[in-house]
């Protein structure tokens, strides 16, 4: 289970555009409150998605048989994740457009976002992002296919959500504990992420795309 969850966690936690948004919100008048609200909206939406779709798809029974025939569902979702990573990498390579980036209007709002607006931006990004939905459904499928009790499924999913938000939580934590010293460091990180967004997305897309493709084909029994 964790061999499939860890790449999903890394793919979520190291999403450049989300870390850019977090750092930009730390530069608004609301500073830490706005960034924390954005992360809260992010986490809350993903938890709600897990509660609803996890119960519908996998977690409704007290226990599950790992040989109940759902392996192909998980493999299909992982194949979709692989294709999504590869398509994103190819689009970045040939066009430079990020299909998962928030709309420009939202990015403009970041410069003066209040905590309330930041919260709704967090929920909105998670709601409209195709990549976010695919990652969430993939995590739900991987956890449900492990054959654990319902409570263990829920706890594991919560751990996934927290770790998947690790990049943003680390940035907010550094800003809270070291408000002065972290500012210049985060500004440098922001400039680096903005300047290297394309190569990061290409490398991550190809690497994770191949990884999940192999996992999916192995699940289908073709490898």
Automatic annotation (TrEMBL):
Keyword Transmembrane helix: yes or no?
yes
TM segment ranges: 35-60, 72-90, 118-142, 154-178, 198-217
The chain's coiled-coil residues are none
Under the heading InterPro entries, the entry gives: Gap/Sap (IPR021315)
Q: According to the lineage, what is the superkingdom?
A: Bacteria
Under the heading Pfam families, the entry gives: SfLAP
Keyword terms of this UniProt record = Membrane, Transmembrane, Transmembrane helix
Q: What protein does this entry describe?
A: Threonine/homoserine/homoserine lactone efflux protein
Organism per entry: Mycobacterium numidiamassiliense
Its taxonomic path starts at: Bacteria, Bacillati, Actinomycetota, Actinomycetes, Mycobacteriales
């Amino acid at each position: 289970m964790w061999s499939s969850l860890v790449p999903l966690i890394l793919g979520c936690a190291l999403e450049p555009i989300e870390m850019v948004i977090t750092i930009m919100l730390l530069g608004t008048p609301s500073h830490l409150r706005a960034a924390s609200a954005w992360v809260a909206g992010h986490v809350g939406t993903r938890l709600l998605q897990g509660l609803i779709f996890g119960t519908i798809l996998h977690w409704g029974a007290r226990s599950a048989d790992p040989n109940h025939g759902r392996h192909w569902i998980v493999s299909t979702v992982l194949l979709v994740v692989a294709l999504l990573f590869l398509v994103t990498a190819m689009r970045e390579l040939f066009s430079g457009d990020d299909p998962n980036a928030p709309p420009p209007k939202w990015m403009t709002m970041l410069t003066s976002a209040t905590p309330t607006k930041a919260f709704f931006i967090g929920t909105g990004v998670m709601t409209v992002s195709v990549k976010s939905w695919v990652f969430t459904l993939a995590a739900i499928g991987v956890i449900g296919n492990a054959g654990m009790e319902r409570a263990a499924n829920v706890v594991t999913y919560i751990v996934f959500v927290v770790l998947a938000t690790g990049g943003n939580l680390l940035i907010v934590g550094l800003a809270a504990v070291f408000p002065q010293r972290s500012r210049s460091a985060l500004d440098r990180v922001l400039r680096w992420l903005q300047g290297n967004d394309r190569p990061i997305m290409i490398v991550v897309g190809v690497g994770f795309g191949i990884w999940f493709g192999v996992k999916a084909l192995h699940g289908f029994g073709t490898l």
